[in-house]
Amino acid sequence: MSAATNLDRTFAALADPTRRRVVDLLRKKPRRAGELASAFGMSPPAMSRHLRVLRKTSLVEEDSLEEDARVRIYRLRPEAFAELRGWLSEVEAFWGGQLAAFKAHAERPRKGRQP
User: What is d(CA 43, CA 41) in angstroms, rounded to the nearest whole number?
Assistant: First the structure.
């Protein structure tokens, strides 16, 4: 799959406010699916659908506990965010360059211009 397609899928996954809030919670620490469902006051199946989207886009990963394989722990995958961060850095660099050029143009002395 191309980098552009991955990026499109990442943006689509993060377009949902609930999924962005899940990412915010997982930034603090890994959590069980049940904890996430409780934090949002939603049913486990509803949270499971959100987590499935985040897993398919590789934004989160799941692990099971050794003592109870039925329990799933979710955590962020930093690698998935690196691609997003790279794209945002490119966009920021472009606009930084554009704004610097505009500033230089606006501050350039003009002939016949009164101070």
Answer: 7
What secondary structure letter does DSSP report for 108? S
6-39 pLDDT per residue, tens? 888 999 999 999 999 999 999 999 999 999 999 9
The contacts of residue 77 (CB under 8 Å, 6+ apart) are: 58, 59, 60, 61
**Predicted confidence (pLDDT) per residue in 30-67, tens digit:** 999 999 999 999 999 999 999 999 999 999 999 887 77
The length of the chain is 115
Rounded CA-CA distance 109/89 in Å is 32
- Which residue type sits at 102? F
How far apart CA 84 and CA 46 sit, in angstroms, is 26
Output the furthest CA–CA distance in the chain (Å, rounded).
Answer: 81
Q: Which residues of 57-80 are buried (b: 16+ CB within 10 A; e: fewer)?
A: bbbbeeeeeeeeeeebebebeeeb
